[in-house]
């Protein structure tokens, strides 16, 4: 498949000199949230208009209307009060700064359920959390209504492709009157890494352990292996393109059989060998046909959406991916013969944090 390709690298975002100031609360201090806090500290000279008023994780929250000093921030958080999501809007509204922004670096449903409320209250939301837009269609519409009602922005580029401009590219196409005919690609950095590396010489579970150590997977890798995360990303892309799919309309082929999905995390880890056997069999079947395995997502003009493991020819664009790269191939009415392809790193705390910061600075630069 020939294509017009856009390869993406990352650099530190820069802020326009006349950008407005903003009060910020960061939710999540795990791999992505921790990387974001470090990035904010490292680029303080470039993002001086950002005043950090709060940090929270699932256990604790720390708020100060006057602003939080970056020194010893996480140790102070661990000694602070229990997490209070109700205090997020209160501390932001107490600020005299013209812009108020919540940055959600969590995978938590309880936080995602607050997005629409914050947007309607005039608080901008920047997020890597896919749940609000990638689950029920009703939740997607609630976010869009709240955004319009509150005259706020929803920075969601990190929900699909980490820091890659996948959503922004698709939105630009649609705004200019183009129409999506098909989407194909690798939407998961963790699954990309696993199948780019797997060659049958070591167990799949060994690579899975490496991916987890690199921060590519969730703590419980079933979140990645189930295909649910990829399905959410595909739903977000489809809905941005005007294809209003429900969760149940995405055909999902996961890599975790039901009897393993029902186990607790420790018991699941002890039985990873069962997934090893399945992946090895699929790999050998593909190799016997001169093909390679990739975990792909696809959407066609009829609205059929699928995610799952597929054997592709060696000249398929996804066959040449390396590391944790994502690839998005957009076939549209104007890119019918040669799809527009966005490709680049699609996993990792640093690139995701970079995407969150870039969305935050875009809000500041456009107000």
TrEMBL record:
The keyword Protein biosynthesis does not apply. InterPro entries: Asp/hSer_DH_NAD-bd (IPR005106), Bifunc_Aspkin/hSer_DH (IPR011147), HDH_cat (IPR001342), HDH_CS (IPR019811), HDH_short (IPR022697), NAD(P)-bd_dom_sf (IPR036291). Its cofactor is a metal cation. Pathway: Amino-acid biosynthesis; L-methionine biosynthesis via de novo pathway; L-homoserine from L-aspartate: step 3/3; Amino-acid biosynthesis; L-threonine biosynthesis; L-threonine from L-aspartate: step 3/5. It catalyses: L-homoserine + NADP(+) = L-aspartate 4-semialdehyde + NADPH + H(+); L-homoserine + NAD(+) = L-aspartate 4-semialdehyde + NADH + H(+). Residues 165-361 form the Homoserine dehydrogenase catalytic domain. Its EC number is 1.1.1.3. The keyword Cytoplasm does not apply. It comes from the Bacteria. Belongs to the homoserine dehydrogenase family. This is Homoserine dehydrogenase. The lineage of its organism: Bacteria, Pseudomonadati, Pseudomonadota, Gammaproteobacteria, Lysobacterales.
């Amino acid at each position: 498949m020939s294509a017009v390709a856009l390869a993406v690298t990352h650099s530190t975002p820069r802020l326009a000199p006349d950008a407005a100031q903003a009060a910020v609360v960061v939710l999540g201090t795990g791999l992505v949230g921790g990387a974001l806090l470090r990035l904010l500290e490292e680029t303080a000279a470039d993002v001086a208009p950002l005043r950090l008023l709060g940090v929270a994780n699932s256990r604790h929250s720390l708020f100060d209307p006057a602003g939080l000093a970056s020194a010893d921030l996480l140790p102070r958080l661990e000694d602070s009060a229990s997490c209070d999501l109700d205090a997020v809007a209160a501390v932001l509204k107490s600020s005299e700064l013209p812009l108020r922004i919540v940055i959600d670096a969590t995978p938590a449903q309880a936080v995602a359920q607050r997005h629409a409320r914050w947007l309607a209250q005039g608080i901008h939301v920047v997020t890597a959390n896919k749940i609000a837009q990638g689950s029920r269609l009703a939740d997607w519409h609630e976010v869009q209504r709240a955004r319009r009602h509150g005259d706020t922005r929803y920075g969601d580029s990190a929900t699909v492709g980490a820091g890659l401009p996948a959503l922004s590219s698709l939105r630009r196409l649609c705004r200019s009157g183009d129409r999506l005919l098909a989407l194909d690609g690798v939407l998961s950095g963790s699954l990309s890494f696993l199948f780019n590396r797997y060659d049958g010489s070591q167990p799949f579970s060994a690579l899975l352990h490496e991916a987890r150590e690199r921060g590519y997977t969730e703590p419980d890798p079933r979140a990645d292996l189930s295909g649910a995360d990829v399905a959410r990303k595909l739903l977000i892309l489809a809905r941005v393109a005007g294809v209003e799919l429900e969760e149940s309309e995405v055909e999902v082929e996961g890599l975790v059989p039901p009897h393993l999905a029902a186990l607790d995390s420790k018991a699941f880890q002890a039985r990873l060998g069962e997934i090893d056997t399945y992946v090895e069999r699929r790999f050998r079947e593909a190799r016997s046909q001169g093909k390679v395995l990739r975990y792909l997502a696809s959407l066609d003009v009829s609205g059929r959406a699928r995610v799952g493991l597929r054997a592709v020819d060696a000249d398929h664009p996804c066959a040449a991916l390396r590391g944790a790269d994502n690839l998005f191939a957009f076939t549209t009415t104007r890119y019918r013969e040669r799809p527009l392809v966005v490709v680049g790193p699609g996993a990792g705390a640093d690139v995701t944090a970079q995407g969150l910061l870039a969305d935050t600075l875009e809000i500041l630069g456009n107000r």
